[in-house]
Design brief:
This protein is α+β, with helices and mostly antiparallel strands. The chain has one domain. It has 2 helices and 2 strands; from the N terminus they run αβαβ.
């Protein structure tokens, strides 16, 4: 990606990358087997130092 992008856009991209979908078993635990097919839980990545989010 280009280096010289607006700071706001860069921050938004980083924030989006830190949100991942939770494991399937977490959805099933929260919603039950039938409703978990259409609903997903989204979680923030906790190990923010370890993931490679260089934008």
């Amino acid at each position: 990606m280009a280096r010289n992008k607006p700071t706001g856009k860069k921050l938004r991209l980083i924030a989006l990358g830190k949100i991942r979908s939770a494991p399937r078993w977490a959805d099933i635990k929260k919603f039950g087997l039938k409703r978990a097919r259409t609903r997903r839980i989204r979680v923030r990545v906790k190990d923010w130092r370890r993931d490679k989010l260089k934008v």
